[in-house]
Amino acid sequence: MKKLFLITNVFLAVLLFASCKKDTNEFVPHDGQQLDSAWTTNVTANSQVLILSKSLEGSFSVQEMSNLLLDTAVTTSTGVQLSFPLNGLLLNGTALTGGLKIEYVLLQKKGDFIRYGVPTSINRYPLESGGALHIKLTSNGQPVTLAGNKKLSIRYRDAAPKQGMSVFFGNTTVVTNSLLFNWEQATDNSTVKLWDSTNINPAAKGYLLETYKTGWVHVGRPLEALQPRVEVKAVVPDLFSNANTAVYMVFKNSRTVVQLSGNANTRNFSFPNIPTNQEVKFVAISKVGSSYYLGAKEEVISANTVSFIKPELSSLSSIINFLNSL
Amino acid sequence: MTDKLFDDFVKDKLGQHNSGAPMHVWERIREKEKDNKKGFFFFKRFWLTGIVLLTLSGMVYLSWDSVIKHSNQEKLLTTTTEQNNTNNSNQTSTIAQTENDQNKAGLSATNNNTVLEKQDNENTLLTQGPVQQTEAGKNEPVGINNTSHSDVAAPLKIKKQSNALIKENNAEINSQQKIQADKTGNLIHSPVQSSEQTAAKEFVLSFTNMAAYRNSLKDFRIGNVPQRTVGPSCPTVNGPRRNDLYIEVYGSPDYTMRSFSNSANLNNYIAQRRTSEDNRNGFSAGVRIAKNIGEKTLLKAGVNYSQINERLKIVNENEKQITQIITIRTVIRTPGDTLFIRDTTYFEQTGTRYRTTYNRYRFIDIPVIFSYEFGNPEILAFSVNAGPVFNVVSFYRGEVLDTTFNPVKISTAKGSGPNNWRSNIGISVFASFAVYKRVNERLQIFAEPYFRYNFKPVTQSTNFVNQRYTTTGMQLGIRYNLFNEKQRYR
Known about the structure:
Mean pLDDT of chain A: 86
Number of helices of chain B: 7
Mean pLDDT of chain B: 68
Helix content of chain A: 10-25%
Shape of chain B: elongated
CATH class of the largest domain in chain B: Mainly Beta
Low-confidence stretches of chain B: 36-45, 69-201, 225-233
CATH architecture of the largest domain in chain B: Beta Barrel
CATH topology of the largest domain in chain A: Chondroitinase Ac, Chain A, domain 3
Largest sheet of chain A: 10 strands, antiparallel
Radius of gyration of chain B: 34 Å
Number of strands of chain A: 24
Strand order of the largest sheet of chain B: 8-9-10-11-12-15-16-17
Distance between the termini of chain A: 88 Å
Low-confidence stretches of chain A: none
CATH topology of the largest domain in chain B: Porin
Oligomer: heterodimer
């Protein structure tokens, strides 16, 4: 009898449990669509923030020269004038006699420093920029270098050239992570001078740069600091992290752009040695999944500046347009 | 009053008689019954039990004919002797002549609790006794042992075996009686006088008053009762009446069949429904009262809960998902200067969504079932059942696809959508065939394959798609006789 009731109970229990399956609703993101809001101590090439930087990067202008002996000075469509020394270019250690391909870009807008990933800072100190150039010389795909003691003269316009500029070189020719990029002051007698041509119409002025190196070349000077320097911090919503977001600080009154570095422990971005009372604009750009976010916020740097920046859903083109407008 | 008199009469005459059968016989019978019960439940798997029950019912059906034929054959071989009612000193007995091989072998067998056995090297035979109805609603035989040697005075033995008595008295041999009659009216054994003579006298115990009862009592002593070859041997007062009231509890795994009726322009929609929604079967359980309204007919009514399970599976390969992320942070710039951050950000992803919803359609019904029973309740009984099922309430949980192939929750609210379902599906028709196996005096287990057809769809009548379910299953349960001790002879 007991056995019969046991069997009956087990039978009914099986029936009940069989009908107790739970509903499921599973969303599997496509490749590249995963939500990754975790902070990291090591941003890699797979991190969304570097993928975003690559997407923002602008193109380089190209100028071809068929006979270098006849054309030692080149004026590009952007107004940059390049003067090459005679017999000053080497191809595989010998004087270049053939054609020359010049790839270059001149960065003068603040947003360009963000797009190309070359913020104006040296050893975590902000620089005021007079413009940055990237020059790449090749001949038939082979790199062309400057001969010893031969300098390349570059003259470009600047609406408000500043005195006291120096020459800086980038620590790398190819930027993969802007946080690792750093300007280094030239120690090879490269010089920069101001030029002002009032006898031409319209009048023009700018910088005359004489450099012994190609690659990233910067005309700048340390940002003047009349006030104490402080560390500035920025906080973003939890959706964003240093793995998918880059935060920049764009100075309003000088051509200065610095990138704040993320701290996985404190979950904020920061940059030291910023003079107080500076009017700046925080710019946060993010890529989460396939979505782009852009946030901007103006602040005046104070002794304990912690700014909350909220990136909003945007698009890649909108971000580029915004950066170009800075 | 009359019941008590009759019971007293039986107790008075049979209570002190020795059965004459060795004790080990009953022990063997009891052990065999235990073995049989164990044998029935040796299955550890319920599905196997279900299959076995189905197989068993088929086997019983096939063997039933042969059982009937065998019974008829025995009847043909059985003759009765006359009973001398005028001289009590010469009691007659019923001589049973069975097949010679059984006679020689002294076989022991059970059929309606009738025992065939060999005793003390006598070729004692047991007739296939007439069948009488017992209190438990069972057909219980009375067997009469007699010697096969008609010229030798042999004790007249009336064997009556009752499982109930065996159980209650722990195998005491109360159910087996050895009866003898002497001149004073006591029953004694007597030689068989004639195997050709049969009794034709009608014996009736009168319970109208005490005097009539005593007058009729002496003519009604055991041994004087004519033993008919077929039919009850016990005296009938108001006739054997069945008065059973059962309570049945059951559960059933159900298989449901779904059908749609729709216009042709919705064929694609219905095809998508069939693809995305698959049957997960269901189950039902219930309790019902069964009362006999005749010897073989019963009326059953109760409450039945049934559940149909389906699974809706949707795969959307290009779905955008927006995730809401709430940020609550507190940043202390300096003591006394705290930045409180409260923010909600939305994040959009593209991916594939796998959505599985287990739909459950539940129904509470009142079945009213007419049942006709047949077979032998001591071994296996059967019944055919049919009747209406009245839905009390229907309620649903789950989702179905709408015409845009998006899932919508099933609701009983009025509307014309495919998700607007009925809160009451009305009347259904139920039909089944049941097999009963006796466990003890009161308890039976049963297996009942059934079929249920719903006249109305689950969807509302205004819907453009009618969705209907038909259910079949196997009810497995127990039934308990509430009136087991209160019937038969009044």
